[in-house]
Amino acid sequence: MESVIEKKTMLECKDIKKAYPTPKGDFVVLEDFQLQVKEEEFISIIGHSGCGKSTLLTMVAGLNDITAGDILLDGTAIAGAGPDRAVVFQSPSLFPWMTALDNVLLGVKQVFPHATKKQREDICKYYLNKVGLGDAFHKKANDLSQGMKQRVGIARAFALKPKVLLLDEPFGMLDSMTRVELQDVLIDVWSKEKITAIMVTHDVDEAIFLSDRVIMMTGGPYAKVGDIAHIGLERPRERHAVLEHPDFYKYRQHLLTFLDH
Amino acid sequence: MSSKISNALRWIGFTSLEPLLKLIRGEEPKKNGLLVFKKLLVPILSVFIFLGVCNAGAKYLYNIERERKIENTRSVQGEEAAQQMADCIDSGDISCKPNSLPSPADVWSGAKTLVEDHKMITADKKEFKEKTAAINKKRKKQGKSPIEYTGRPSFVDQIITSLKTVFAGFLLAALIAIPAGIVLGLSETLRSGLNWVIQIFKPVSPVVWLLLVSMVIKTILANADMDKSFVISFISVGLCSMWATLVNTSMGVSSVDKDYLNVSKVLRLGVLSNVFKVVLPASVPLIFTGLRITLSVAWMVLIAIELLAQSPGLGSFVWEEFQNGSSDSNAKIIVAMFVIGGIGFLLDRIMMFVQKMVSFDSKA
Q: Three-class SS of residue A51?
């Protein structure tokens, strides 16, 4: 059943091209890349390494220049990086000299400049609690495990109340046990906030479990959207239910077949 | 309790005493025994070997000097005088002692002389102060400057003067080099544009800095009523030693982890909070490495600069002893050498300690 109310488009990539100049002429990573992401949609971008999926994400984040084309956020073209597009980096990138709370607080201060100190701290503590770090507010980021650091990274991103959440292989550096834990944490927090999210990954199961749509990219150079899989599994999703769902293997087969070519 | 002691030892950098502590407590005797041997006995043994080599060397040089002295006397004054000279030397009389490298025993007695000397001068100063207290009070009332002690400074006074100079110089270096390093680190344009300044001035000898600084200071402070030689020497020390901090700070600031900068961009931190919350804390380890090098260079060049600038301190002490050539001068110079080395080592340890306190990176 199609949803009756058509959701508005939150993010739109129009004719995106990314080329790096080399002595032998331009090296074109992406060309003619089109993507529309609706409000409250969670999409994953999957593809072979080097296909430019991370490049695309950094361009949306505003950390990388666009060679040609437009990226529209809520109807306006983006200019530079900003807290309306929060990023969860592959390496947690916490400031090791700050506590977990201070790391989250730093961004919250920027986004809510008129809030009182107490209000800001409450926001941070709310999200740190959400990601399961209720007892680690005042631990130095350096003393946290890799998985805990990435939890703080997720809390930091959500606490910014962004329009779009960008996840750049957020669980790529974690062991498989921690990865599963953090996927559950992410889906849990996301279900409540419904922030439009774009995640880059090369884990097929992760993409299906978390997303509404999976964008499959063709191999680079000159990468573009190759295929799109609509994941119709109902939300809220629960890991065991998803794994037992017959459609899960259908989607999995679809993605793997695409990636094999 | 015992772990507290271990922690304290680790903090001040004496980890080598830890195994001994454990051995006394009877923990893992085999492993800790080996560690005590490696970390404690071998260093101590090496000190004795060092002293032995010094002693043998000193004796060898002493004998050469003795033979030469006797031979000289023989060729000038004849056999009888030579015999007398040999007796005189062997009796240990100071008046005919050959002037050569002092043995460890000589150095030890030299050190004792210096301590005695310090006690004497301190007592003398105290006496002087008591004597002049009444007069100085009167002079103060009349608006005149008090009479000050103008006697010879003791060895300890010289050390204190040197430390003052080196700290003033170090502070000057840090105050110039850290801000300048941050600016250079942040701006690629300035960094490549001003690179020549660093490349050209970094290798300039302390002596040349001293001359340059004294040229300028002489003009600026021509009429000022202050200790010009102190000002000249601390500025020269600062200018010689600041380059390590400058280079390290600009390198640290320019090589901050790209992920941190990306986070800063996503959060849209302002310039100031970017510098103070992200860039500076991230480059603290490298800045401190620079400061440590700066302090050790400052201490090293200080001696040469004091020696040339005629400013009081260990450098002038060494030079005066060398010039004066009395029987225990050489021993005093060696004492000064060890004191200089020891203080340099201590300063480095203090810097390491401070670095551990302020840096997020505990491994540094």
A: coil
Domains of chain A: 9-260 (3.40.50.300)
**What was the pLDDT predicted at B364?**
42
Using DSSP bridges, classify how beta strands A213-217 and A42-46 pair: parallel, antiparallel or unpaired: parallel
Longest dimension (CA), chain B: 94
Distance CA(A147)–CA(A136), nearest Å, equals 13
Contact B262 A97 (CB under 8 A): no
- Compute the Cα dihedral for A131, A135, A138, A141 and give only its sign: negative
Give the highest mean pLDDT range of B151-160, B280-289, B321-330. B280-289
Residue whose tokens read 């801000």: B179
Asked if B348 and B292 count as a contact pair (C-beta separation under 8 A), the reply is yes
Which of A88, A108, A110 is best to mutate for the B interface (most B CBs within 10 A)? A110
At B112, give phi and psi (nearest 5°).
-65, -40
Specify whether domain B153-358 bears CATH 1.10.3720.10.
yes
Residues B115, A176: Cα–Cα separation, whole Å = 68
Mean pLDDT of chain A: 88
Taking the CA of residue A40 and the nearest CA in chain B, the distance in Å comes to: 21
Q: Which residues pair with B201 in a beta bridge?
A: none
The ipTM assigned to this model is: 0.87
Q: For residue B169, what pLDDT band results from cuts at 50, 70 and 90?
A: very high
The domain spans of chain B are 2-93, 153-358
